[in-house]
Design goal:
By secondary structure, the chain is mostly beta strands. It contains four helices and 40 strands.
Length: 721
């Protein structure tokens, strides 16, 4: 993959992190030269602990998770390594209440559900959008491929989080934490190879760039590629990440990070429904053979700065800018005949059983642009007032993202589903389809005030308020103005320390989800809103090595969109999600580490519209996971786990169902000494029993049911110096 010329700032970053790698290599070589006899090296191929790392995502302050009145789960790097989690979906399946939906942008951009709701509202970006939304180091991104090679941990904040993070879906948010800087010189290499042309190569290094260790650097480069047992499917991701940080003293830190992600893919549109179940068709059958690969190429810069103004007050600031070029050229299979064919052979009027499938360049964007800019300033302080201790947070946040480009709609042809002929498929340019320029804008300027209070006798409280001025639009009509709205949303929580390492908590929070823009006639749509009540119990045992959360919640999303009269959209009512979640993560003994989850979810449409009384699509009533790793000795380790979901409704009309499944994975690793460093070889086998299962489907169609991967083996070599 060819990278374009970096910006001048990017060149500075690249040179700096390259120096970090060189410094690490030089330091290692010097150590080997000066040491006549190597010191004893304890080989621990998979010795990373499953102890939950600290997280401040739910409060944006240094509050322990035990004292946070919200369910927050972290998948640490040790679990990601042992399971060989190559996608974000692989990571979050360890967390209770998560699931998969149908995404349009390849495996590096999965669309995930939390507590029954998608992480991106389709209202905001068109009725068929499947673009993924998550947070990278606290920054909300949309449609950016996830580079799992540079991930330290994955955090899942359950339930509404818009009081601290702006417009977001009420099921929760996923935050990807990148690898951290270190003053210790390091150099690492990793190579994974597997079935279906799977390959991932990682080269990373870093350390102090000066003798005083006030300047740190780190660089990571990776290349992922994989095909599939499914026809025509392909994914490639080339990524680079570089960070430098200036830390002159304990009170000041300034860092600059540059990230480049270049993805090429041909999306898997899955199989279609036949009656009330997925069609029993050849496992390889897939109708998207677009002559070109789709692509997403992004560059971003993140500047972070913090300084301690006094012993009690700290000022933090962040500026983020991201620019991307997109090329979406997938062919969408769709059984509905939209009358766009040019001859009788293009007809695909639905029959039972289904005989013909139409194929479209449907809302494809062959030349798109994405831009994101965010500036945030935080002031945090600890004060004593009214006989109580207060931890205060004041934040000013401005966020804007724009997506532009002409959308193309054109019918390619219709094919016999039993004997499809894909020869002569035209490129998107050969269809001569007219394009309509579409604006996709989200913007807000917000003020946040949060007060965390130690009430005494083991009681803690948090009060937060956010005021937003927002603007949003998704429209091809250039005459329409942005839909401007203002909101004030509260968050109230309380925690009681029952005993050391045991807390009870309760929280109420309002949420603002997508700004729905305007209808074609210019009428503004009300924003989607939500509110949640959550109560729970948290435990930290074995000196913090075993952490458990039990949460019960009642979540209601209002002003949901109804597309039954599309292109006119109406906001008609609400959906309700109630359930129980149990999450456990820990290092039980030196040999045994576990991560487990279970969720019971009752998620239904409760309004009186078209979908009244139906269950939310893809929301399993019962789901969970159990993964364990056993260290036989300092070198050998084995792990295994099961991931399961009960039956799910396949679409919003509940016209078909995805059967329940249980999938078993396993791993075996061996650690060894590699010169002055250490290495490991790891074998992973996913879907051990080759179970046919369906990971998710699009809630608005019967033709896009994603199949789970078959039994897949991979081997990974890791070297660290």
């Amino acid at each position: 993959m060819t990278f374009q010329r970096f910006t001048p700032i990017a060149c500075v970053v690249t040179n700096a992190v390259a120096s970090a790698v060189a410094f690490a290599i030089s330091a290692q070589a010097q150590a080997q030269t000066q040491t006549q006899e190597l010191e004893r090296v304890e080989v621990t191929g998979t010795s990373q602990s499953y102890q939950a790392p600290a997280t401040s995502t739910a409060t944006k302050t240094d509050t322990p998770n035990l004292l946070t009145p919200q369910s927050v789960q972290v998948v640490p790097r040790a679990v990601l390594n042992d399971q060989k989690a190559l996608t974000l979906t692989d990571a979050v399946r360890n967390v209770a209440g998560t699931g998969g939906d149908f995404g349009f942008n390849g495996s590096a951009q999965p669309l995930i559900l939390l507590r029954g709701f998608q992480t991106e509202s389709m209202t905001a970006s068109g009725p068929m959008s499947g673009m993924s939304t998550y947070y990278i180091n606290g920054v909300k991104v949309k449609g950016v491929p996830v580079n799992m090679a540079n991930v330290e941990s994955v955090e899942v904040v359950k339930g509404p989080a818009s009081v601290l993070y702006g417009r977001s879906e009420p099921g929760g948010l996923i935050n990807i934490v990148p690898r951290a800087l270190s003053a210790t010189p390091t150099l690492g290499f990793e190579q994974t190879i597997g079935q279906y042309d799977q390959s991932r190569t990682i080269l990373e290094g870093g350390g102090a760039l000066d003798s005083n260790k006030t300047l740190l650097g780190r660089a990571s480069a990776s290349y992922d590629t994989a095909k599939s047992n499914r026809d025509f499917v392909e994914n490639r991701l080339a990524a680079f990440s570089g960070t430098i940080a200036w830390i002159p003293d304990a009170d000041t830190r300034v860092s600059l990070a540059y990230d480049r992600n270049a993805q090429k893919y041909r999306n898997d549109f899955g199989v279609y429904a036949d009656g009330n179940r997925p069609a029993q068709v050849p496992h390889s059958l897939q109708f998207n053979n677009a002559p070109e690969l789709s692509s997403f190429d992004s560059q971003s810069l993140t500047l972070d700065a913090s300084t301690r103004l006094s012993p009690a007050w700290t000022l933090k600031a962040r500026a983020v800018t991201l620019r991307a070029k997109t090329k979406e050229v997938d062919i969408w299979p769709y059984r509905v005949d939209l009358g766009a064919g040019t001859g009788p052979a293009d007809s695909c009027v639905e029959t039972t059983p289904l005989q013909r499938m139409c194929r479209y360049y449907y809302y494809d964007r062959p030349d798109g642009r994405v831009r994101l800019d965010q500036a945030t300033v935080d002031l945090q302080g600890d004060i004593a007032w009214g006989g109580l201790t207060h931890k205060l947070l004041f934040e000013l946040d401005h966020y804007e993202t724009r997506r532009t480009g002409a959308l193309v709609f054109a019918q390619v042809n219709a094919v016999d589903v039993n004997h499809p002929d894909f020869s002569g498929t035209p490129t998107i340019g050969q269809t001569l389809a007219p394009g309509s320029e579409t604006r996709d804008v989200q913007r807000w300027t917000s003020l946040v005030v949060q007060d965390q209070i130690q009430l005494g006798s083991g009681w803690h409280a948090v009060f937060a308020l956010r005021h937003d001025h927002t603007a949003g639009l998704y429209s091809a009509d250039p005459s329409l103005d942005l839909n401007r709205q203002s909101f004030t949303t509260p968050r109230v929580g309380i925690v009681y320390e029952v005993s050391p390492g045991q807390t009870l908590y309760s929280q109420y929070q309002d949420s603002v989800a997508a700004n729905n823009g305007r209808n074609p006639d210019g009428s503004p749509l009300a924003a989607e809103r939500a509110r949640q009540v959550e109560i729970g119990w948290k435990s930290s045992a074995l000196d913090g090595q075993l952490n458990t959360t039990v949460a019960v919640f009642d979540l209601v999303k209002r002003n949901r969109a109804d597309y039954s009269l599309y292109p006119t959209i109406t906001t008609i009512g609400e959906a309700r999600s109630r359930g129980l979640e149990i999450d456990l993560l820990g290092q039980l003994t030196r040999q045994l580490a576990v991560m487990a989850s279970y969720a019971y979810l009752d998620a239904n449409i409760t309004d009186a519209g078209t979908y009244a009384g139906t269950r939310l699509a893809n929301a399993a009533r019962n789901s969970g996971s159990l993964w364990g790793r056993w260290m036989f000795d300092a070198q050998w380790a084995a792990g295994a786990g099961v991931f399961f979901q009960s039956q799910r409704e396949g679409d919003q009309l509940n016209s078909f169902q995805l059967p329940g499944y249980g999938r078993v994975d396993a791993m075996l690793s061996y650690g060894f000494r590699a010169g002055a460093g250490k290495g490991s070889v790891q074998f992973n086998l996913k879907n051990v029993f080759n179970r046919l299962y369906y990971s998710g489907s699009h809630p608005g169609a019967r033709d896009w049911i994603q199949t789970g991967a078959p039994r897949t083996a991979s081997v990974t070599l890791r070297l660290d110096y």
